[in-house]
Design brief:
- The chain is α/β, with parallel strands linked by helices.
- The strands form 6 sheets. It has a 6-stranded parallel beta sheet with strand order 12-9-13-14-16-15, with helices on both faces.
- Helix 18 crosses helix 22 (754-764).
- The termini are far apart.
């Protein structure tokens, strides 16, 4: 056996002497049963990877019993099985409310095997019964057409974390623990996963976890030494350095190291006892004494061989304890017939006849080791958060309406108005503790600061005199400059039955593109699983957007998240670009009430004209788009041209262009359309919010030129409308031009400004003749005047800054 070490803090309830292997945490009978249970889980895991028949090896194993394509990942699986059985033990002993998060990428066989052994799998999938016939189906379905994936997936009971989400397990774990004071989240971190940026940062979330109002996260670093074909860094540094690393991150690391099963069971049992008692001691002290001192939470480092208990040598090459154990350690096919006997020998090493009865059911004395009912990790309701989800208490958003006497008569900062509404949402749900706002230190910058009137940002690290809004408990989690953590926390929070939103600078939300994708995939798959209840929607507020970067410039300009989002299933994604504050309030009230969507809302924080009364805004947002009759003059005739807009800044410029056209070409019939719900542009056959062709043609016409001012990349509008009959669509939007400049000059550089828009109209309507030619000359002259003025004075022309609709 390798060296075994326990590293304990002095304040722990149990000292080192009481936790030595010789102490005997497990009596001989318990040790024997736990090892047998582990062997059963390992046997089921190997069976899933390899077999589609002969599940109990009642007959000699033949190639015909083996799947034609053997795929899967063995390397992490036996270690996760080992962890699971030991977690079961402490759940039963201490009546723990615990969920399991599997961070290593492809540990699917382990979680499926353990939920099958505990009975939760068969309860959800009755066709996978607890007998020989059920075992055969269990094995066959794994990584098989029409079956289940090789990683921990939405189909796996007890899971809130997709195996493909490498790097996010610990973020999800903390999100699940926030506002769940009775929950313990056991989070298995792969040592390859630990090399990712999100995971490496996530260790520091212990500075934001309240021992009074939150639950506990128990990280278990599964240090098995290898990734796909390389060693892992944390496995190749000295023990002292590894210990110092985790102590430096604020943890108390407890080490379980070895390869002898009996001794490892003893050591793991003792270490689990220490960790759970330490967690309880920390929480008890904090809650009885209202002690907000930041604790050093325990964590476990499990160092075991990769592919533990599997083939040690294959074809003369060492496998167990090497990278060769990562996926399928033993090829079994027509080209490797000699491996059939080796596979049989491997599987029989688990002594299956001791584990299952004649009917193929786990023998009663082993089944008794699993927790009961909802205490089983596969049946814990926190891992099926829709069961626990309760509606938010919502304020009346009308109370925050901006008074708009006429279109464009007043200006307001849209997100500042929204901040007051969100303040009331926070206040109304303080007692329920089921709503949080997440963001990477941008809540104030995005002008949502009103929320700090009723809550603080949660912070459990040291404070200094001039800090603001820091407290051991708060509804805001924005004190960590990591989009990855905010996304992961919010996902974990939602997946365990709560509500929230993520506010971010638009350009930097791109950092979580892959995380969004995985969550959208999770939502898509769970829609197809009747036993998975719907969860609250993932709501994004993207502010400080592409058109408002006067001092940040090009680096802060990227509206491409919208392009990324619309690629996902139409059942899941929704995108809103409200043109003013009243529309933003209406949209966000709707988004916070929805279930099982990803809602993306783009809003500005700078003062801009306000267009609609609240009543008009509600109607407009409910419809998703519509003709703005007050800006149009085609009521009694066919329009000569359609000017459409989507987004606050494009709306401003389109309306400014319309005012110029009304002044210089008063006979020109113009229809103005504003789009709030971007997905309305898509065909009804492609998205539930899409317009029918009849309705689209009635609005945009079948043949008139459409000049469309869009917030993001122009190609996105073309993608959404490619099936429409009217091909005369000309979109102006962001085209990767920007620098440190004025707000209006940003629009000029991307040719989204009013003067370029006017020229576009004239170019598309040659019948305007000389009148159009003279208007184009006026527009060109204005652009030159604009450039000379900003170069001289550093601000936009007075007529741009002071422009009002109708004046």
């Amino acid at each position: 056996m390798s060296a075994s070490t326990l590293i304990l803090e002095p304040e722990n309830l149990i000292d080192v002497a009481e936790n030595t292997v010789s102490q005997g945490t497990l009596d001989s009978d318990e040790l024997k049963k736990m090892d047998a249970y582990w062997r059963a889980a390992n046997y089921l895991s190997v069976g899933q990877i390899y077999l589609h028949d002969n599940p109990l090896l009642r007959d000699s194993l033949k190639l015909t019993h083996v799947k034609p394509l053997v795929v899967g990942h063995w390397g992490t699986t036996p270690g996760q099985n080992f962890i699971y059985v030991h977690l079961n033990r402490v759940i039963k002993k201490y009546d723990l409310d615990m969920i399991y998060i599997a961070g290593p990428g492809h540990g699917g066989p382990a979680l499926v095997a353990n939920t099958y052994l505990e009975g939760s799998y068969s309860e959800i999938y009755p066709n996978i019964s607890q007998d020989e016939a059920g075992l055969k189906k269990l094995f066959k379905q794994f990584s098989f057409p029409g079956g289940i994936s090789s990683h921990v997936a939405p189909t796996t009971p007890g899971s809130i974390h997709e195996g493909g989400e490498l790097g996010y397990s610990l973020s999800h774990a903390f999100g699940a623990a926030f506002d769940n004071p009775g929950l313990v989240v056991a989070c298995v971190v792969g040592d390859g996963e630990a090399e990712t940026g999100p995971l490496a940062t996530a260790w520091h979330t212990n500075k934001l976890l309240s021992p009074i109002t939150d639950g506990a996260v128990l990280p278990i670093l599964h240090l098995n030494g290898y990734k796909i074909s390389n060693p892992t860094l944390l496995a190749r540094i000295e023990h002292e350095e590894l210990e110092q690393f985790f102590r430096g991150c604020g943890w108390t690391p407890l080490f379980v190291e070895g390869d002898d099963p009996e001794q490892m069971h003893e050591l793991m049992a003792a270490t689990m006892e220490t960790a759970i008692k330490d967690i309880r001691h920390i929480q008890d002290q904090a809650r009885r004494n209202n002690d907000v001192t930041r604790p050093r939470w325990p964590m476990i480092v499990l160092k075991s061989p990769k592919g533990w208990t599997g083939p040690k040598v294959v074809d003369g090459l060492k496998v167990e304890g090497t990278f060769r154990a990562h996926q399928v350690p033993l090829l079994v096919n027509a080209e490797h017939l000699d491996h059939v006997k080796q596979l049989e020998s491997w599987m029989k090493s688990y002594r299956v006849e001791e584990l299952f009865d004649g009917n193929g059911r786990l023998i009663p004395e082993l089944a008794e080791l699993a927790p009961k009912g909802d205490r089983r990790m596969g049946a814990n309701p926190h891992a099926n958060g829709g069961i626990l989800l309760r509606d938010l208490r919502m304020p009346d958003f009308h109370d925050h309406a901006v008074t708009v006497p006429s279109p464009g008569a007043v200006e307001a900062q849209d997100t500042m108005i929204l901040g007051k509404f969100l303040r009331d949402v926070v206040l109304l749900n303080q007692e329920q503790r089921n709503f949080r706002i997440f963001g990477p230190d941008e809540t104030l910058s995005n002008l949502l600061g009103a929320v700090f009137e009723v809550t603080d940002r949660q912070w459990d690290a040291r404070e200094q005199k001039n800090d603001e809004f820091l407290a051991p408990e708060g509804r805001i989690l924005d004190a960590m400059l990591s989009e990855h953590q905010c996304e992961g926390w919010l996902e974990g929070y939602l997946l365990t039955g709560r509500h929230g939103l993520f506010n971010s600078y638009e350009a930097f939300i791109r950092i979580v593109d892959s995380m969004f994708s995985q969550h959208a995939k999770w939502l898509k798959v769970t829609l197809e699983l009747p036993w998975r209840r719907k969860i609250a929607s993932l709501n994004y507020l993207l502010a400080s957007h592409v058109w408002q970067q006067d001092h940040n410039g090009f680096t802060h300009q990227d509206p491409g998240f919208l392009d990324h989002v619309i690629n996902k299933k139409a059942d899941i994604v929704r995108v809103y670009l409200p043109p003013d504050a009243n529309c933003l309030l209406s949209v966000f009230d709707h988004c916070l009430r929805t279930r099982h969507y990803v809602n993306v809302v783009v809003a500005g924080k700078h003062a801009l004209p306000q267009w609609l009364t609240m009543d008009a805004a509600v109607k407009h947002c409910t419809e998703g788009l519509g003709i703005w009759q007050w800006a149009s003059n085609d009521r009694n005739d066919e329009p000569d041209v359609v000017l459409a807009c989507c987004g606050d800044t494009p709306t401003l410029e389109i309306l400014a262009a319309v005012s110029i056209l009304h002044e210089h070409l008063p006979d020109l019939k113009i229809r103005v359309i504003n789009v709030v719900d971007l997905m309305r542009l898509q065909s009804k056959s492609e998205h539930p919010h899409g317009l029918s062709d009849t309705d689209y043609d009635a609005l945009f016409t079948r043949d008139k030129h459409i000049i469309f001012g869009f917030h993001g990349y122009p190609s996105l509008v073309h993608r959404l409308t490619y099936r429409r009959a009217n091909r005369n669509l000309h979109v102006r939007g962001y085209k990767e031009e920007g620098t440190i400049t004025t707000a209006f000059d940003m629009r000029v550089q991307n040719e989204l400004d009013r003067f370029h828009l006017v020229q576009e109209v004239v170019d598309r309507l040659p019948h305007l003749g000389a009148r159009g030619d003279y208007l184009k000359q006026i527009a060109r002259d204005k652009l030159i005047e604009h450039k000379l003025y900003i170069d001289e004075y550093g601000e936009d022309l007075p007529e741009i800054r002071n422009w009002k609709w109708g004046k």
